[in-house]
UniProtKB/TrEMBL annotation:
SUPFAM superfamilies: DNase I-like. The chain crosses the membrane at residues 29-49, 56-74. The keyword Glycoprotein does not apply. Residues 97-299 form the Endonuclease/exonuclease/phosphatase domain. The keyword Nuclease applies. InterPro entries: Endo/exonu/phosph_ase_sf, Endo/exonuclease/phosphatase. This is Endonuclease. It comes from the Bacteria. One of its GO terms (molecular function) is endonuclease activity. Gene3D superfamilies: Endonuclease/exonuclease/phosphatase. Keywords: Endonuclease, Hydrolase, Membrane, Nuclease, Transmembrane, Transmembrane helix.
């Protein structure tokens, strides 16, 4: 029976060591670590088994393992505390992956009208999808555009209600991450990035995924917001390093860090994970965050309302 206990416990213990240590022993771990919340939820099983069979050494290891996993996941379920921005000091950000342009155009427009974002960050923006959005009136609502549409999965774009000046494009592995500085009426200049690194679905794509995340600007100096499909959760080291540089994850700050954004129901027969984010400079308050359905795409759009500092930077 002792061998059975260790057989059940070992995968959880290894998971905890790799997650806490930030190591990637094989490329498949990049995808697997995204499911850490589920591993944390199941981690009491070997502890209960060890206690039931009076295997005290295994029970001690199982307790440390479970506490380690729960400690990195559970805070996402609780609000960090936030302040309410004044009406003229808000920045509302909506981000959506269009699934190679297949997302329903009318539903995208409904989201824009209902949520009234200042900035829309779009991933997998194809020329055809761009044209459909234009025809539906998106540029009438959000006339300032950074258009980096591209055939296939690599296109992206930014739509803004306020003037925007383009920054140098991040393009790695044929994936474009559009950048622009939004001139907010409050006097703030805020850089926004439409985030979309490669998906680490195969070994040869893993370096592109890592470099795509590493290329994202760290926080500090100018106010910045990173919004979109990160193909990574808060359990991935590159995202944690971005947070350490001075960002806050809007979902985590509002106690919604465990709400899955991919895959949307009916797309993939797997457990949902949280890979779409709005990361905001810590000098911004996080007023609200929400996740929304969107027909035609495997990702759920994410929306955040951010409060800007009282003094322009």
């Amino acid at each position: 029976m002792g061998a059975l206990v260790w057989l059940v416990l070992s995968p959880f213990a290894v998971w905890a060591v790799l997650r806490v240590g930030g190591w990637t022993p094989v490329w498949q771990w990049i995808a697997l670590v995204a499911f850490t919340p589920y591993a944390a939820a199941a981690s009491p099983i070997p502890l209960l088994l060890s206690l039931g069979l009076r295997r005290w050494t295994a029970a001690a290891v199982a307790l440390v393992t479970s506490v380690s996993l729960v400690a990195v996941v559970l805070p996402r379920h609780f609000e960090d505390g936030r302040t309410l921005p004044s009406a003229d000091q808000r920045l509302r950000v909506l981000a959506t992956n269009l699934a190679v342009g297949a997302a329903d155009t009318a539903s995208v427009m409904d989201l824009v009208r209902d949520l009234d974002p200042d900035v829309l960050a779009v991933q997998e923006l194809t020329p055809e999808a761009r044209d459909r959005l234009d025809d539906a009136g998106l540029r009438e609502l959000m006339p300032h555009v950074v258009d980096r549409a591209k055939t296939g999965v690599g296109g992206s774009g930014l739509y803004s209600r306020h003037p925007v000046s383009e920054r140098p494009l991040i393009e790695l592995g044929a994936f474009r991450q559009a950048r622009g500085v939004v001139s907010h009426p409050s006097g703030h200049e805020i850089e926004v990035v439409s985030v979309h690194p490669c998906a680490p679905s195969h070994e040869h794509k893993s370096p592109c995924w890592a470099t795509g995340l590493d290329a994202l600007p760290e926080a500090g100096g100018q106010l910045r917001v990173l919004a979109g499909d990160f193909n990574a959760t808060l359990d991935h080291l590159p995202v944690r390093e971005l947070l350490d540089s001075g960002y806050r994850d809007a979902a985590d700050a509002t106690g919604q860090g465990l709400v899955p954004t991919w895959p949307q129901q009916g797309w993939e027969p797997i457990l949902g994970v949280t890979i779409d984010h709005v990361l905001a400079d810590r000098r911004m308050a996080v007023h609200a965050f929400s996740v929304h359905p969107l027909p035609g795409t495997d990702h759920r759009p994410v929306f955040a309302e951010l409060g800007l500092p009282t003094t322009a930077t």
